[in-house]
Amino acid sequence: xxxSAVFNGKLLPYLLLVPQLIITFxxxxxxxxxxxxxxxxxEDAFGLRSEFIGLENYQALFAQPExxxxxxxxxxxxxxVAVLSLSIALLFATQADKNLKAAPVYKTFMIWPxxxxxxxxGVLWFFMFHPSLGTLARPLRWMGFDWNPVLNxxxxxxxxxxxxxxxxxxxNFLFFLAGLQSIPKSVIEAxxxxxxxxxxxxxxxxxxxxxxxxxxxxxxxxxYVFFDTFGIIDAVTGGGPAGATTTMxxxxxxxxxxxxxxxxxxxxxxxxxxxxxxxxxIQFRYVERKVQY
Length: 293
Known about the structure:
Pfam families: BPD_transp_1
Organism: Bradyrhizobium sediminis
Structural class: mainly alpha
Shape: globular
Keywords: Cell inner membrane, Cell membrane, Membrane, Transmembrane, Transmembrane helix, Transport
Number of strands: 2
Subcellular location: Cell inner membrane; Cell membrane
Distance between the termini: 31 Å
Subunit structure: The complex is composed of two ATP-binding proteins (UgpC), two transmembrane proteins (UgpA and UgpE) and a solute-binding protein (UgpB).
């Protein structure tokens, strides 16, 4: 008979949870509560004097056309990055899951970009596509394409999307590959015996079995796009040109750190936090229903 470990101490489970609870409180709940309180204050640029003004920061925020433009930019940016990074990573994972001689090398190269910091990834892509110095921008000019992300807002959006997608593909690739390798080969072989082609086997057998992984990555990618892409945007475009790449998280930084509006910046961070929590709740409420565990 197998022996099972029994812990008689009733406090032990709670003691094991204490480190994680402390980290969560210090790095999430405490800063979040401070941001909520600060959003009701008017402060000077140095945070030395403050005055309680209630909801005035929120009223001023939603009266700004620039904030609605940042919302639209965030919607476009987040949709493009999430869809492209998930789709490309799934394509690469399906290819890496095949019996190839160079598969280990291929997998290693796919994982490396995840170790690059967002700001470094942004600088890398900026230098590659700089309109006058970029090694990849010159061929575009030779082909007659007037590439200039410094002045053209559409080009700038394309550049930050490419950089953000490239940075996130490795993370998605790891989980998709792990999910593919956990699918029993006998299930796929049974579909092949029944006459299903490769595409039909993928969409009717493989992809439904990957739905838990896909759902998890969808939630993670939404959080990534809304928060972790700040370093890329700051390094590549700085929110420009003319605010074309100013997302909600970058506007929090621009108004608070650069503009000195600490109360208004805190109000923006609260709104952003509520939006992300709402999106996550919607995904768990409606999208998870279609997940097959």
